[in-house]
Structure formats: structure tokens, C-alpha cells
Amino acid sequence: MRITTRFIVHLALGLVHWILASALSMIIIIEGIFPLFGLIVNENTEGMLVGWIFGSSTVICIGLFGWYFGGPIGFIMSWIYQLSKHHYEKPVGLKNIYTRKGKLRMRYLLYKEVLQQLQALASTLQANEQERRKIEQAKQEWIAGISHDLKTPLTYITGYSTLLLNEQYEWSKEERHSFLQEIHHKGIHMEELIQDFSLVLQLNHVDGMLLLNKTALDIVEFTKRVVADISNNPQASSYRLHFKTDTPEIQVEFDPKFMHRILQNILMNSILHNPEHTDIYIELLHEIDAAVIRITDNGVGMSTEMVNNLFQQYYRGTTTDASTEGTGLGMAIVNKLVQAHQGTISVTSELSKGTSFEIKLPKI
User: Looking at per-residue confidence, does 54 or 208 come out higher?
Assistant: First the structure.
């Protein structure tokens, strides 16, 4: 509406200028110039003279109108063309449309909102392009890391199987068992990697939804069992896990298989990326419409960059010298699995002060 109003005002001013310029030209020529040279305007020449003056004024005004209205449109069109070619920097002539005081020049004022929207669009596209390049770089690094992760267990499998097949040596029963154990362990690891890929493909499907086998269960008892399983893991033997709840039971609909994966990934991250003797607190809280699972540790914490990128698919960060063996998909999978349960997950962390995850799941 404001653009329409300004256009009408500019057009009306242009018409007024044209009429005044034509009238002024007639007065100057007929009353000033002709008498000055002793020329007489009669009835025969007056009509031709008026027509010539109006015609000349009209041509000049059309040219001025073209410059006044067409110049900004041309500038806008060239800017749009520049954006279409993925050049998101400010146009060279952008500074010329402003006065020294930083205000739009009169003929560009008509397109004020359009220019503002173009600047906002250019900034957004530029930010998106930078983010796309950042993700693409992370993706390439992730692919390189995954190739390494798959190659490492495959090298073990190939090496130990070659030793077993070598007829020049007679391996003892214990040695053969040790070799087979390593092959089995590395095979399981490769299977886990492939399962992660498969799960991510399902989560990244067109509709972004994963078919869940939900069951109404007590999330308190379920979480307690998961914590007990993790406590018995040899990797957790040097860590102190504490379980606490403010209610004996909270009924929630969830898929036990995927909920186990969610809790296991978070707890194992707290173990693998923190030094020994770190305290890990698992707390369940009862809210009006949600069950809250809070997992907090007093470990090394994470940087702001790591927190911001934690749930990105291609981000592989570590806060310790622990092995980064894995797909780098763990927390991205956790995030999407929580979303598939219509829940939310958030993380807060500070270097040297620990990390806290909070999962909210809707109650029945």
C-alpha cells in the first residue's frame, strides 16, 4: 500500500512538472524570445509552435521519466540477476543510491521496501551459502573418517584371517581362539557402523519419520535397567553412576529398542569422553505433561562450538584423547530418535565444569 501511494505521488509530481515545464517553455518562447528577435507569432504559426513546444517537452519528460523510474528498476533487476548467479556480495553501485547522510535518494525512495527485502535476501542467501559450504566440508571430512573407520576393522579381519589360513604355521588352540575373537569383535563393530548408516537413511526419509513400535511402559524402571547395564560394562568400571528419581513410576509410550539406544548413546558418551572417576548423575523428574530424563556429569565439558554442532550429522568432536572410533552419527541419531518420540532434547555444557542433557517425553 505504501509503495502504491508513493508511486501515485511520484507520478502526479511528474505530470505537474511536465505541465509546468511546457507552459513555462511557451511563455518564454512566445513572450520573450520571439519579441527579442522581432519575430511575430500569428494565428498560423501559434498552433504549430504550441504543438512543437508540447512535443519537445513530452520527449524530454519521457526521457526524464525513464531515467527517474527506469534507473532504479534496472538496478534492482541487475541485483536480482547477480543473486541468481550466486553472487551474494553487495552490488558495486549500492552506495550510489544513498546520499552522504545515508538516506535513499529521491528516485530510489519509491522502491524502499523492495531494496530492504533484497538486502535481507542477499544476507540470508550469503549466510546459507556459508553454512552449506561448512556442512559440505564437514561431510567430506566425515566421509574420510568413515572410510578410515571401516578400513580399520577390515584390516584386522583380513590380517587375522590371513594368519589363520597360512599353512606354514601351526597355531595353538588359544591363538586361533584369540584371532577369531578379534575377527568377531571387528565384525560386530562394522555391523554397528552399517546399522548407523541404515538408521540415518530411515530418519532422513522424505517424511522424516521412523516407524516406532511404541509400548506404554514405566520410563523410571526402564531407565534404571539401562543404567544398571551400563554400570556392568567394563568401560564404565572406573566411573560413578548415580540414579535418582522424584517419583516411583511415570508411564510413557516409547519404543524400548530405540529408547535404549538413546540412553546408551548419551551415557556411553559421558564415559568415553570424560576421565576416570567422573560422576554421572541420572535423574528422572515428573512434570505436568512430560517425563524428564536429565543426565549430568562433572567431566571436562564442551566448547560452545561443540555444543552448537553436537546434533549435526557430520560433526565429529571429542573433548579428550579418547578414540573417535564411530560414525560421528551418535548424537544426531539420538536427537532424531527423541523427535520421533515427539520429545525434545537439549544440552548445556561448560569447559571443565561438565555437561548436562535433558530429554522431555510426553506422558500418557
Answer: 54
Could you say which architecture CATH assigns to the domain 215-362? 2-Layer Sandwich (3.30)
pLDDT 10s digits, 262-296: 999 899 989 989 999 999 999 999 998 999 999 99
Give the 3-state secondary structure of residue 91: coil
The dihedral built from the CA positions of residue 179, 185, 189 and 191, taken in this order, carries a sign that is positive
- Give DSSP secondary structure letters for 95-129: GGGB-TTSPBPHHHHTTHHHHHHHHHHHHHHHHHH
CATH code of domain 141-203: 1.10.287.130
The pTM score is 0.57
| All cell numbers assigned to 114 | 523492495
Angle between helices 2-27 and 112-165 (to 10 degrees): 140
Q: What are the helix (H) ranges across the chain?
A: 2-27, 34-36, 43-65, 71-84, 106-109, 112-165, 173-203, 219-231, 256-272, 304-309, 330-340
Structural contact between residues 340 and 356, judged by C-beta atoms closer than 8 angstroms? no
Adjacency order of strands within the sheet including 279-286: 240-245, 279-286, 290-297, 354-362, 344-350
